[in-house]
Design brief:
Elements lengths: L10 H8 L14 E8 L9 E10 L2 E11 L7 H7 L12 H12 L3 E4 L2 H14 L9 E3 H8 L10 H7 L10 H19 L7 H5 L9
Parallel strand pairs: 1-4, 4-5
Antiparallel strand pairs: 1-2, 2-3
């Protein structure tokens, strides 16, 4: 792959980047949010690999079940210890694609959507490492973390880190298909909407309010 050295990129990347030429709306109902999750061989972003990506969209502040993506990647690395968590075997009946093809499908799907994930830094870092291995720049999308959004509610200031399981129990969200990428994406989308309903007092909340630092005072 020589496009990086020439500072030119393949068509699928240029198509993705072209979506960012327009200004992002600040009105939440006009934004397409893309909630996603990855299942991986481990938690080391530079060493481990993505096994699957699950995405589901939210538009007009409603989950769009018809607007989703799920891809499984060929396993170049295999960690038997993590199989009991995500259940993805090296082989099996699932159709798996290589890393570059997965990136093409992912970027074509997300466009300029605002990315939402729980502990988003990890999932975004894993995608950025995939891009780096394929001589491509980092993701350009704005990112929201449901863990940070929960802190903004100030419902519980006893600690700064809350797992997805903890918040699902707090908000009575059924944990069906937990630890599958698509299942966790759907669960996170439900959590995201519940958090927005708490924060969006009198419908005055804007995107920049969600992107602002957690310690900002005056959201509620």
């Amino acid at each position: 792959m020589h496009w990086f050295k020439r500072k030119t990129y393949p068509e699928f990347w240029n198509n993705y980047a072209s979506h960012f030429k327009r200004a992002q709306s600040q009105e939440l109902e006009k934004i397409r949010f893309m909630v996603f999750d990855t299942e991986t061989t481990g938690l080391e972003t530079k060493k481990d690999r993505v096994l699957s990506i699950g995405c589901i969209a939210i538009s007009q502040l409603k989950i769009k079940v018809s607007d989703q993506l799920e891809v499984y990647l060929k396993q170049e690395l295999f960690n038997a210890d993590t199989v009991k968590i995500h259940g993805l075997l090296r082989d099996g009946k699932l159709t798996k694609i290589d890393e570059l093809e997965a990136l093409k499908e992912f970027l074509n799907y997300i466009e300029d959507a605002v990315i939402v994930a729980h502990h988003a830094a990890f999932d975004v870092a894993m995608i950025n490492e995939m891009l780096k291995r394929n001589d491509l720049p980092k993701l350009k999308n704005k990112v929201l973390d449901t863990g940070h959004l929960f802190q903004k509610t100030k419902l519980d200031t006893s600690k700064t880190h809350f797992s997805l399981d903890e918040l699902c129990k707090r908000f009575h969200i059924p944990m069906h298909d937990r630890h599958t990428a698509s299942g966790d994406a759907y669960i996170t989308s439900l959590l995201f909407l519940k958090l927005l309903s708490l924060l969006n007092d009198k419908n005055k909340l804007k995107l920049n309010d969600l992107l602002s630092p957690v310690k900002r005072i005056g959201l509620l």
